[in-house]
Design goal:
Elements (H helix, E strand, L loop, with lengths): L1 H7 L36 H28 L2 H15 L2 H10 L14 H29 L7 H28 L3 H28 L5 H28 L5 H12 L6 E10 L2 E9 L6 H18 L3 E8 L4 H5 L11 E4 L3 E10 L2 E11 L3 E7 L6 E8 L2 E7 L9 E9 L2 E9 L8
Amino acid sequence: MMDKVRDWFGFGPMTHGMGGHGHDHGDGGHGHTHGVIDPTIATTTRGIWAIKWSFVVLAITAALQLVVVFLSGSVALLADTIHNVGDAVTAIPLWIAFVLARRKPSKTFTYGLGRVEDLAGIVIVLIILFSAIVAGYEAIDRLINPRPIAFLGWVAIAGLIGFIGNEAVAVFRIRVGREINSAALIADGYHARTDGFTSLAVVLGAIGVWLGFPLADPIVGLLITLAIFAIVWQSSKAVLTRMLDGVEPAIIDEIHHAAEHVSGIGRVESVQARWIGHRLHADVAISVPEMATAKDVLGVTEALKEELFAHLRALAEANVRLVSPAGLAAETSHAHHHAPEPFKVACDLAAGTLEIVDTPAGERMRLTIDRHADDLTATVIIDRPNGPETLRLEPVADNHHRLESTMAPAEPHEFQARLVLTAKDREQVLPFKMVEPEGHHH
């Protein structure tokens, strides 16, 4: 029985309804900002249903409180009513986006009209800001010019109604959040529970006035007004970030995490993402090994898209681009995951970088040349306990700016060696040492 009661009030195991999955792929791992509905909640029918009924409950709660505000003149209750209205109307921009998102993209609005949600969000933030200023003004005016409060009992009851309404929304959101595996909706529920305790402050203010301390009501009203300003600050940051194509860093991390599940990707070169309304659009540039065929590339691209949609529930479109690695920075994507630091080559015959890299054929010693003399040849001679190991470096695919060994260098990859460069009748020997990173010694 107690377990059922605890579960109803949202104090059950956090894994309830989540299948015990430790990593929440559905929400992209990003959090929730008080006063702004997370778009991922709107990606399921159950989530939309939760938003709708949360709005209804909070709207009814605020309407009942508003009646008592006019009868009693309590500024604490006025501030709490504004607070509850502010939480309720955050659902409005989402519904505006739902309506306008049904319109097909046009030649002018090629991405549709999802951005209207951001504009509606700005309008709502400004309305809440104006209301907070009014509530703050009334609270300060009552501190300076105290006035009696009527119907103290009704004020206390209205505060309790605010608590009950927020608690009902909290329990509802937490339960549904666990059903649909939405960390954002669960967080929304706990925020609603916190708001319920704000409503209880109105009851404390009424008790203070009843005990003969008339300033208790405006003081509580001022404290609640400060909480509303905090909501305005958080909400405005979230809305403006979306308008400027900003996303939560955790979303970018989740895209990289999705790419780790796909074999055949040489490196994720760049990741871009942005919200258009409550839908996420991602652009990912990847490179693949040079030996990959067109069929391989197509398979990798499709596999990455599947992983992205599996990891990011709010994802509407994923564009995967293939880019060719350019220069040394991109070439290091093929490097051995615990390869030694590259050796910088600088002499009369050549300038470039000598390193151990991973290739489709296995590990190879590679010399990438920025400048070289005509008819250059290169050989690496590694000093081994059983005698020297010789690796001749040959041009790769007739590219004389990249020379690779045909065999992998023997383990361990920590050794003293010489790079022998020859060009016509000239020869230069460059001694070097390769040392594996800490923790990867053999």
